Amino acid sequence: MKLDTEMEMLLNEIPLLHHGGLLGGDAEAGDLSFLIHELAAMGIVDGDDEPPAPGAGAGSIFPKKGDDLLASPHAFSAANHHAHMPSLFDSFPFDGADGWCSPAPASVVATPRSRCKNAWRKNAAATTTSPKKCGAAAAALTKSQSGESLAGLRGFMYHVARDQHGCRFLQQRLDDGKREVDLIFAGVSRHAAQLMVDPFGNYLMQKLLAVCDAGQRMALVLALTADAMVLVRISLNVHGTRAVQKLIESLRAEEEIRLVIKSLHPGFLELIKDPNGNHVVQKCLQSFDAEDNKPIFDAAALHCLEIGMQCHGCCVLQRCIARSRGEHREKLVVAIACNGFELAQDAYGNYVVQYVMDLKIPKANSSLAQQFEGKYIHLSMQKFSSNVVEKCLKVFKEADKANIILELLATPHLEQLLQHPYANYVIYSALQNSKGSLHSALTNAIRPHVELLRTSPYCKRIYSRALLKK
Questions:
Q1: Quick one: DSSP state of residue 101?
Q2: So what's the pLDDT on residue 6?
Q3: Chain centroid, CA 114 distance in Å
Q4: C-alpha to C-alpha distance for 58 and 55, rounded to whole angstroms
Q5: C-alpha distance from residue 50 to each of 81, 188, 243, 331, 449 (Å)
């Protein structure tokens, strides 16, 4: 209990010390070093921001193979931090027309510790001003002052990055030059996996990825891909998916791309079915060339039926077809065509089949025609597959179109198709896409049911004198 009380007391001092240093307090008030050392000794913060060497001891918090990232005391949860620590950048009372924070009264000051304790108690119930004022004041610092501020946060930058205002402050400092980028990178790189899924820290990581150099980017890639499932879990997170997409956009070296694709591959099915993860896969397809995406194409072809019948998966599958070339595309199209009958009847899979049909690849369309033959009536009377039959009447070769129309004409109860809520659209498409003797045979079969067409709510399109006289 005593340790918890002391810890809370130390954490409560941080905002006032930080604002004192940033916003015009004396040098002693702005020095965080004594507090950082005490927090480090209690195990609250790290005393060293430098990334550990590979294979470092228990002090390393880079994810290691076999570790449960979600179970880590540092991982994927801001609650562990925010439950005990107020914001480093929460606003403090302002007095004076210029809007700057006033230093603590001289009568209160005895030592840095006592001054902060007394000021914190005194101002605890005071009305605070908007954080925008403190943010504007911090933005007015010169570059040299910014560097000193970052150096003062050494050992505590990870916690600053998980704070709303602290994250914004660090993002602003990234614009100040290479020295500031290096300082921030040294302070947060060890915690990349945790920050990428943090509600605030993910924004810092996105910006850091855009400004870091090639060596720093490779260091992050190596850390994030050391355990394949770490990057998968980050990609499934609502905040992490954005950071991973930014990581993918920033990759340039072939080795970086290979490591990321290899790391994502074990979670491919889970990623494409997830509302967050599917965007990561699509970003890979968009950012990398066909050869780099080969593992994704192979997995998509192998699991095309399962993928195509899922709301997010059907979009990814179509994107795979669009981005693939040569043998990769052929393999995908053949796999989809072989499962065409099942996909055509699915709420999402029918869109994949129609997409393949629009490519007008003879081998694929011929395979689909063989699967559908003798089943067009069944397909026409279903909500989703009726759309596929309509597409067949538009893109198939004339011989295959004739087979569809002959199958429609062979049914003993054509009037049921005419009045059916879905099959009537197929009849209408058949009238539009037929000609010659086939068109005449179809119109002759429909004419005896003209009175039915006039009264049925589903036959308005078919009941067209111009169309029947064509």
A1: B
A2: 53
A3: 47
A4: 9
A5: 21, 9, 22, 47, 83
**Pair 395, 441: CB distance under 8 Å:** no
Which one-letter amino acid corresponds to residue 74?
Answer: H
One-letter identity of residue 294: K
Residue in the structure block whose two tokens are 């009372």: 93
Beta bridge partners of 101: 94
Got the DSSP string for 253-312? SHHHHHHHHHHHGGGHHHHHHSTTHHHHHHHHHHHS-TTTTHHHHHHHHHTHHHHHTSHH
Rounded CA gap, 370 and 320, in Å?
A: 25
- Are 320 and 300 contacting, i.e. CB atoms less than 8 angstroms apart? yes
pLDDT digits (tens, 9 = 90+) for 168-226: 999 999 998 999 999 999 999 999 999 999 999 999 999 999 999 999 999 999 999 99
The residue whose two tokens read 């997995």 is 299
234, β-bridge pairs: none
Q: Which residue blocks in 60-175 are alpha helix, DSSP H?
A: 79-82, 112-123, 131-139, 143-152, 157-161, 164-173
Under a CB-based contact definition with an 8 Å cutoff, are residues 170 and 161 in contact?
Answer: yes
230, 63 Cβ separation under 8 angstroms? yes
Query: Model pTM greater than 0.90?
Result: no
Give the closest residue to 240 by CA, choosing from 206, 197, 275, 210: 197
First to last CA, the chain: 91
Run of H or E residues at 240: helix 240-250
Distance between CA atoms of 197 and 276, rounded to whole angstroms?
12
pLDDT of residue 412: 87
Distance, in Å, from the CA atom of 127 to the CA atom of 83, rounded to the nearest integer, reads 22
Question: What is the spatial distance between Cα 220 and Cα 244, in angstroms, rounded to a whole number?
Answer: 11
Placement of tokens 């040294």 in the chain = 186
Rounded to 5°, the CA angle 89-94-97 comes to 135
**Are 326 and 291 a contacting pair, CB within 8 Å?**
no
Tokens coding 418: 């005419």
CA distance 67 to 56: 14
| 231 in Cβ contact with 260 (< 8 Å) | yes
d(CA 372, CA 16): 74
pLDDT bin (cut points 50, 70, 90) of residue 450 is confident
d(CA 221, CA 192): 10
Contacts of 128 (CB under 8 A, 6+ apart): 90, 91, 92, 93
Q: Are 196 and 239 in contact (CB under 8 A)?
A: yes
